[in-house]
Amino acid sequence: MLSLRLVRGGRPLVQARRLLVSAASAGTGFLLLAALGHALSHDGAASSVRRLAWCLVPLGATVYVAVAVSRTDPALRPERGRPPYGLSSRGMRLLTGTATAAFCALGSVAALLLFLLGRGSLSVRPLGDGAAKALGAGFDVPVAAVLTLLALVPVATSVATAALAPVAAGQGTANATPDATSAPPGLPWGVALLAAGFAVRATLGEGTAGLSAKALAGRGGVPGGVVAGWALIAAGLAVAGPGITWLCGRLLQSGHPGAVRLLAGRGLQEEARRIGRPLGVAVAVGAALAAAYGGDATYKATDPLTALGVGLVVGCAAIALLLAAVESRQARTDITAALAQSGTPAATLRTAVAVRAGAVLLALIPLTWAVTVLATLPVGH
Fold first, then answer.
1. I need a surface site. Which of 243, 257, 273, 298 has the fewest CB within 10 A?
2. Residue 192's closest CA among 243, 156, 154, 152?
3. Residue 80 Rama label (left phi>0; alpha psi -120 to 50; beta)
4. Is 14's pLDDT higher than 90?
5. How many angstroms separate the CA atoms of 310 and 149, rounded?
6. Where are the bilayer-spanning segments (predicted)?
7. Phi first, then psi: what are they for 147, rounded to 5°?
C-alpha cells in the first residue's frame, strides 16, 4: 500500500520523472511484443531470435534510467542518514523495487494496448495493414508468452533498483565517503575493458564497421565479435567515466589557476563519481550511433521499430545524464550558498559552471570520435 501511495503522490516534476520510466518501459515492451509478432508471422527462427536478442539493448537502457530516476526520487531517498518511513534498509530496498515495478507495469499495460491496436485485435487498425502484418495479425497470440515478455521490464528494473537503492547503511557511513581529491579507482579497469573491446572486435569481427542502424532492430548479419566488442567498449567507458571526469578537474587546476579555474576544477573532482558514469555511457551511445549511421551509407532510417529502439537508447542515456546533473547541483547547494555568503560574486560562480561544462565537452567530444574510429577500423582476414 505504501508503494501505491508513493506512485500517486509527489510533485509534478517527480511524477514526470516516473512517467519517463513508464514511457521507456512501454517502448521496450512494445519492441518485445513486436519481436513475438514477427516470430508468429515468419517461419525463420534465426531472424526472430535475433530480433528478440536485440531487444536486450533497450531493456538495458530502461533499467539504467529506472535506477537513475529511483536514486533521485525524494520519496525513495534516505534522510539524515536514516531510511524514511521508519523502514529498515531491507524494507527500503523492497519499497524501492516495488515502486519501480509499479511504474514499469503501467508502461507494460500501455505496450500491450498499443500492440493489440496495431494488430487490429481491438477491431481497429490505426497503424495500418502493413504494421498489422508485421505484428503478426491473423495469428493467435500465446498468452503465456505475452505475459512473460511484459513481465521482463518490471522484474528487471525492480531487481536492479532494489539492489542499487541509496539506502543508509548506518551512522558511520558519513566517515566512509571518499575524499573528493582522491581519484576514482575505476580508470585502469575502464581502459582495460576498452582495450579488450577493441581487440575482440578486431579479432572476431568481420567486414568493416560491422554495425549498422538496421542491425539495432535485429536485421542484417552482425558478427558476434562485433556485438561482444561493443559491449566491452560501452562497459569500459562507463567504468572509466568517473576517472576521466576527475582528470578534467585536475587539468583545470594545473599551472597557476585563478579563482574560476580552481572552483571549476574542484567542482569536477567532487562531482566525478556522480556524473562520470552517465558521461561515459553518453560517450558510448554517441560512438555507437556514429558507427551505426556512418558505417552503412545504404541504409535509410525509415523503419519505425529501428527508430523506436534507437530513440529509447538515446533518450534513456540523455535522461540519466540530465538527472545526474540535477542531482549534482542539488548536492552542491550548501557549498554554493556558503561561497555566496563569503562574498564570492555570482558571476564567478556562473563562470565556473560554464568552465566545468566546457572542459567536459572538450574532453568527451574527441574521445567519442576516437572510440568511433578505433571501433570501426577495417578488419583484416
1. 298
2. 243
3. left
4. no
5. 20
6. 20-39, 51-70, 91-117, 143-165, 186-204, 224-248, 275-293, 305-326, 359-379
7. -65, -40
Q: Tell me which residue has cell 565479435.
A: 225
DSSP of 338-356, one letter per residue? Answer: HHHHTT--HHHHHHHHHHH
Looking at residue 88, what DSSP letter applies?
A: -
Spell out the residues 6+ positions from residue 69 whose beta carbon is closer than 8 angstroms to its own. 17, 18, 20, 21, 100, 319, 323
Q: Which of 259, 262, 270 is nearest to 345 (CA)?
A: 259
Helix and strand tally (H, E) in the chain? 13, 0
* Residue 284 and residue 290 in contact, taking contact as beta carbons nearer than 8 Å: no
Amino acid residing at 338: A
Residue pair 260/351 in contact (Cβ under 8 Å)? The answer is: yes
Give the residue among 208, 241, 205 at the shortest CA–CA distance from 226. 205
Between CA 271 and CA 184 the distance in angstroms is 11
148 vs 229, residue with greater confidence? 148
Could you tell me the three cell numbers for 132? 498489422
Buried b (16+ CB within 10 A) or exposed e, 245-274: bbbbbbebbeeeeeebbebbbbbbbbbbbb
Instruction: Please give the average per-residue pLDDT across 149-163, as a whole number.
Output: 91
pTM: 0.82
